[in-house]
Amino acid sequence: MDFAPQKSIPKKQEEEEEARVEIWKYIFGFVEMAIVKCAIELRIGDTIESHGSPMTLSQLSTALNCSASLLYRILRFLVRRGIFKQEINEANVISYDQTPLSRLLASSNNNSMAPFLLLESSPVMLAPWHRLSARIKGNGETPFEAAHGKDVWSFAAADPIHNIVINDAMSCTARVLTVPAILEECPQIFEGIGSLVDVGGGNGTCLSMIVKAFPWIKGINFDLPHVISSSQQYIGVEHVGGNMLDSIPKADAAFIMWVLHDWDDETCIKILKNCKGAISEKRGKVIIVEALIEERSEENNNKLGDVGLMLDMVMMAHTKNGKERTSKEWGHVLHQAGFTQYTITPIRAVHSVIQAFL
């Protein structure tokens, strides 16, 4: 039997067909965040975890007091994305179980990233995105200010609930991802440090982990008064209220994580100069933890590389002049602040560790 040769699809046509498929990802890109938020609010993962074994749809809908048919559709969506998994139990009935992803979204899990997702998916943080194009055209106002009438820090100071949401989100990234990676991969950066001030340290979660790992360090958690007012007490950590734009408490070294990206170069240089004035001349250094943008797209060969670009867009929407920086841009800022040398150490996290020396 003779078969007619298959006609090859022209490359241009193939690319157009792929684009028609790909476009739906952008049209409905918000859906994944919304459904994951729904799962967190329903406490699906927490319910399965407390049950101690996979649960059937009937068990889950009863425990959650919700519609079984609607819950099934939510679970079908989440299973397709590897958040939760299906199993067949002994009675030959489909049951649902946790996955590493769903455990990262369970509120009762100490390693949960749910607080960060709840922050970014909150109405407060979503509203500025609708005003981003107006900022690009140069109307003067930042998207956050246009949406809420004040900047993100003033808004948090005036809204205790949102302030807690922000602090919880920052704490979870420190607790789950960044600080464990620092302690595991480059603990030597804390050698010889007797006192450490965490500049913009939030509620102290990050510094408490460092002090617990290195108990000889005296920790000073430094942030705005309204931020630390609700902070719990940690052994070896003193909470100090103030403004890093004015002055910073004295210490052997300064630690500043996920703070400088909120500011333009001029303000970063001012903050770093304040850090420089606060640290010991003999052993002083500033430990900066931030995401780094690759200089060229072809260098973006790690799975977390794209997250830095996403964070850069977040800075554009939520701050006046904040941005993520390349290593060259960090070099410029550090040189202008008066630091003679610096090192950059990548870690298994979104961030890298930058050590700036006197």
From TrEMBL:
What keywords were assigned to this record? Methyltransferase, S-adenosyl-L-methionine, Transferase
* A Gene Ontology BP annotation from the UniProt entry: methylation
Active site (UniProt): H261
Coiled-coil stretches are: none
Q: Does the keyword Lipoprotein apply?
A: no
Q: Which GO terms describe its molecular function?
A: O-methyltransferase activity; protein dimerization activity; S-adenosylmethionine-dependent methyltransferase activity
Q: Does the keyword Transferase apply?
A: yes
Q: Which residues form the O-methyltransferase C-terminal domain?
A: 129-339
The UniProt entry, under Pfam families, shows: Dimerisation (PF08100), Methyltransf_2 (PF00891)
Q: Which Gene3D superfamilies match?
A: Vaccinia Virus protein VP39, Winged helix-like DNA-binding domain superfamily/Winged helix DNA-binding domain
Domain O-methyltransferase dimerisation, residue spans: 24-107
Q: Which domain of life is it from?
A: Eukaryota
What's this protein's family per the entry?
Answer: Belongs to the class I-like SAM-binding methyltransferase superfamily. Cation-independent O-methyltransferase family.
Entry protein name: O-methyltransferase domain-containing protein
